[in-house]
Amino acid sequence: MKTLYVSDLDGTLLNTQARISPRSLEILNRLAAEGMPFTYATARSLSSASVVTRGLSAGIPVIVYNGAYIMEPATGKILASEGISPEERAYVRRKLEEHRISPVVYAFVDGEERVSWDMSRVNEGKQRYFDNRKGDRRLRPLDTGDGLYVGETFYYTCIGEKEELEPLYAVFADDRRYHCTFQQELYRPEYWLEIMPAKATKYHAILKLKKLWKCDRVVSFGDSINDLPMFRISDECYAVENAVEELKQEATGVIGDNDSDSVARWLEENYGRLNVSTEK
Quick count: other Cβ atoms within 10 Å of Cβ 83? Predict the structure, then answer.
C-alpha cells in the first residue's frame, strides 16, 4: 500500500518566520529522494507558496487556493481545478456590495491569473497582504471598484474586522454552492473571510491527488480550522502543538509546534516504519 503525506503550510510546516527551516528542508528532500510521496495543501496561491517553500523538492503536484487548484510547482501547469459559474459570481458580487465589503479578487483576466483590489478601500490588513507580495506579477491594483469583478473569478478574500465580516459569513456559511471560511489571520488581529467554489476544499483535492498518484492511504498535518476537511479524509492526521483546539480533537495525535521541525521530524521517525508496514 502506498501512503500520500500532506502538510498544511502556515502554522504547520512553516515556522513563525513563514519559512521552512533548513533542517526541515534537508529531511523532506532526503525522504522525497527515497520515494516518499509528500506534498502540501495550502490556502496560498502557487506564487506565494513557492516563495515560502523555496528549496523544497518540487517533484509532486501541490494543492493551492484551499483546494481550488492542483498544480505542478515547477511549471505552474493546472492538473485539476474547481470553478464558480457566472450566476454564482454575480450573486457573490451582489452580496459583497450589499454588505459594503471590498474584496481581494482572484481571477483569470484575458487568460492570465490576476489579483485585483480597489486601492481606495485598503485597510491595514490588506496593506500588509500586498506589502508582502511586492513584485508579484499577478497584482492588479485598481483606482476604483470599476473592473474589480471582470474575468473568470474563482476566489474572493475579504480582510477586515470580525464584526464587519460576520454578517457576510452568515450569508455564505450554509450556501451549498460555495465553500466559505472565516478565521483570524495567523499572528495578526484582522480576520479573513474567503469565498470559493463548493468543492474547493483540501478534502476534495486530496481525493483527486490520491487517485492521480495511485495512493491507498493519507497521512496529514495541520493547525487550523480549514484543515478539518483534510483530517477527515486522512487515515492518520496530526495536529501541531500550536493548532486550534478543534483540530486537536479530530487528530490521531498531537506533535510538536511549528518552530520545532515537528512535521519533518515525525516523517523522519515514521516514514520507514509505515512504508514497511503498508507494503506487507
Answer: 16
44: buried, middle or exposed (CB in 10 Å: 19+, 13-18, 0-12)?
A: buried
**Could you identify the residue written with the cell 491594483?**
141
DSSP, collapsed to helix, strand or coil, labels residue 123 as: coil
Residue type, 271: Y
- Is the pTM above the cut of 0.90? no
Q: Return the SS3 of 188.
A: coil
The cell numbers describing 274, all together, are 509505515
Half-sphere exposure of 225 (CA within 13 A, CB side): 10
Residue-level pLDDT at 275? 60
39: cell is 506534498
* Helices 22-33 and 262-279, packing angle to 10 deg: 20
H helices within 173-244, ranges in order? 202-212, 228-232
Residue 154 has pLDDT above 50, yes or no: yes
238 confidence band (pLDDT: 50, 70, 90): very high
Q: What percent of the chain has pLDDT over 90?
A: 82
- Output the nine-digit C-alpha cell for 25: 528542508
